[in-house]
Please model this.
Amino acid sequence: MSLTAKKSSNPLPLKERIKVPRQLMPEQAAAERAHNFSEVNLGYSAELAQQEALRCLECAKPTCTDNCPVGVKVKEFVERIVIGDFLGAAAKIREDNVLPAVTGRVCPQEDQCEGKCLLSKKVKPLGIGYLERFVADYEQRMGTHIVPNAAPTGKRVAVVGSGPSGLTVAGDLIQKGHKVRVFEALHEIGGVLVYGIPEFRLPKQIVREQIEYMREMGVEFETDVVVGRTITIDELIEEEGFDAVYIGTGAGLPQFMNIPGEHFNGVYSANEFLTRINLMKAYKFPTYDEPMLDLHGKDVAVIGGGNTALDAIRSALRLGARKAYVIYRRSDSEMPARAEEVHHARQEGIDFQMLTAPVEFVSDGKGWLTAARCVRMELGEPDASGRRRPVPKEGSEFDLPLSVAIIAIGTGANPIVQSTTPGLGTNKRGYIQASEETQRTTRKGVFAGGDIVTGSATVILAMGAGRRAAKSIHEYLTTGEW
Ligand code: FAD
Ligand code: SF4
Model:
């Protein structure tokens, strides 16, 4: 039964709520999980979730919701948890967020909803991500998806790319009665959620279940189609008869440092490394053999300090690495990775070489990597990003022995779609130009959003763009106005 909770259902007086400690997320022990790919966080029980929910201050103007890129109604879903109406809580979240089991696990909550929770002025913020994950998993276990059945409009939309932005567009438009077909270059649906983020943070089964739900709603998926090569955007519109196209192709083009030795055997881009693990199933070692990724007894380093870097090095540890380093040129406070991942990585024994940067890779003379030549850095004046610029310390050079180095310093826009779509405007970095309000591009009937517009960002920002695009596509399809 779904309740409409108008008055507070929380039995605790406000001043008592602040005394309830934030409920810890049960997790696999660090020593154990460092050697397996099973999920690190085990999820709240119903009791823990209800105890945590009691901490909500039920603010009149909830800043958590304002600071969520898709405006999840936190207060309203949390009050349903208090009264044990978990399915009602899930339905409330789904009004704004089609992938709650994903965002509950991977959103950088400390910068978003939880970052603005009033509790955090005095104590730890409400565990919004943990609660979101709990209700989404509960709903999944109960198998009670409501499959909307809107009257068909006769309009057809092509979605290019099956990452979180494309999936959000597809999920929203199918509920409006439009026919939606998603075209994906890879053989698996889900974008970074399946080929980037590893199993121990986001089990693939969670993503598959969300995709199954979309299939049930009527979304069609076509894999192994590289739009711009297999078929162009113009052909989708003119020959296949799609009424609108959404481009959500992400920012998957690896960037390199352009230092000597980057071509040696043993140097990977994080993109290739993680794709081999995720899609070629190296994470199921030894059931699936990926000989290049047998890292037993090897010393491995990742260069970079974002989520991708941590995912890569924690995967390397699980594949048997003897030593696993993060080499990052700034300090802890500038690291862009989620706080929880940094904490977990430290617990697992990853060695953080902060304020350090490689200047060259060294080989054995036969083309195989043997070390990264590094320098120590100190922080100077802020640069264009507002972060203090790292400056090399004179005479600090040293060699770090390594068999494998993984470059995770960022990604760029893959140009295939842009270069094969006449009239599609791009900015100077090759990303597609699209309106921030409507996600409309410079081509009539063509919309774009997610990382291919903003550059590498977050899952929920990509979903937020997808949501705006779906609204705008619906308007375009129903009014014909551009
Ligand atoms: P993507 O997820 O990149 O999906 C794009 C899809 O389009 C891909 O499947 C791609 O194969 C497909 N495609 C590309 N070109 C074509 C074409 N020509 N034809 C057909 N299909 C095409 N964000 C967080 O919020 N939290 C995290 O913890 C987090 N961790 C991350 C870890 C890693 C390893 C990486 C790489 C990113 C992480 N991010 C995280 C960032 C987040 O995943 C991205 O911002 C988000 O996935 C962007 O979504 P998207 O839909 O724009 O693109
Ligand atoms: Fe927080 Fe992300 Fe959920 Fe929004 S979607 S409430 S930012 S966890």
Q: What stands out?
A: Residues 459-479 form the longest helix (21 residues). Residues 68, 70, 72, 74, 97, 103-104, 107, 109, 112-113, 128-129, 132, 460 surround iron/sulfur cluster (ligand 2) (CB under 6 Å). The two ends are 43 Å apart (CA to CA).
